């Protein structure tokens, strides 16, 4: 009996010790992680005071007034790159019921305001100022994107190769191991374009590359005066779009899932899919019909995939069904060679009008707006051309580069005259000249590469940069005039967005942000200016610049947070000497400092 009693006593003692140990571990993790978080993020949990307003709010902003609960609830993994609306951890925590077969888990799902991160994202240990364009097309610093699994996974396909402290990009892809340049020339040759140049003497300017990998296809198109919107999801090939943007190549996160792509109808001359592993036959061909919506009259779809050439039973089945589908969509084969087929969309509505009644897929309803894209579900239907496009047998656009400044036909959709368009182009040319005069002490010809215009309107800010070695992501608000189609008709690219939410890109991906009345616009919606500041800080690169053009109270509001954000004022000017109606605007130029945490220094050592 004594032995049993001693055993029970030992068990009770051991249980008590375990309970105490677990409790101490809990205290260490809870309070230790909070202290470590404050140290690592420096100003993270004390950055904002909720509810303050820059249009007449509390001037005495006590940054430590309110502990942000989300900074305690969620911790940033050092290996993760926070994209708030594409955060799979958030999807798991919110227990969203998503259909994985429809790729809903790769679509945008944004946190509610009370669940948003309230912190700055430090650069990774060893971060360096990015390699300058055009050298960056072929190499980047490994420390800036310390994720090399793609290099190992795709080593046989020449996607990327780790060499010392850099990652090199030989220009290969899953389908074009021997280089994107040769592959691009072969597509041009298939289409009988002169000199095997894909831009077809300026008539082919905008390209949509779906499932783009690290965007080497888009990167090699730039030398032909072609700009591509390279799109891929944040899937198992994580960071592929981050690599593209680090290289200075236009790219965006997104997926062909259940919602329309954030691009207007008739935006691209060419769509491209090289081994993109998309089931084009699903849901009555709805994904292929979404491509049809964004292609211009006479636009091409270049498809390089086993179904186009393999002879096994499954590939033949897919090929036959896909061929039948595109035939009913009135596409024709423009060329087919080896592993690639190129279909062409019709120039007019004639074929649609000749289809037998009841032919599937159907034509879209007459009241369907093909340019309504923000949060709009895809539909398995064909979008007919406007009367103008039907009569002119195409878009009626000038070749590049003339189309950048030539008034496009779709201006009439907004009641804008050619004179209004030309005045807007000249106004922003003068404004951009003024901006560059303020930036000139701080920048060289290769300092800037990736630029975002956060409220692009007609794209005239981007047009004014045509002689600089930069590209611009033109963002048009989701609730205003749908002018993004004018941006695309000028030979530029962009997306629709609501700045009350985070945008679909990685941290540290842009060199310059231009915010024209963006703060005033979101204030009218009741959204947080502090959240927008954090979002801008997230996507701007260290040493990058932000130009805020808005009313004086907005500028005063931003100035209160400069120290907490590690931003430095560069210049302030008013617009009283500028032409135009916004003469009470003030523009404020800031630069983000390169800052590292104490943990980053230790890791680098």
UniProtKB/TrEMBL annotation:
Keywords: Glycoprotein, Membrane, Methyltransferase, Signal-anchor, Transferase, Transmembrane, Transmembrane helix. InterPro entries: Put_SAM_MeTrfase (IPR004159), SAM-dependent_MTases_sf (IPR029063). The keyword Zinc does not apply. Pfam families: Methyltransf_29. The keyword Transferase applies. The chain crosses the membrane at residues 12-31. It is a single-pass membrane protein; Single-pass type II membrane protein. Gene3D superfamilies: Vaccinia Virus protein VP39. Its main location: membrane. Its EC number is 2.1.1.-. SUPFAM superfamilies: S-adenosyl-L-methionine-dependent methyltransferases (SSF53335). Belongs to the methyltransferase superfamily. PANTHER family: METHYLTRANSFERASE PMT8-RELATED, SAM-DEPENDENT METHYLTRANSFERASE. This is Methyltransferase.
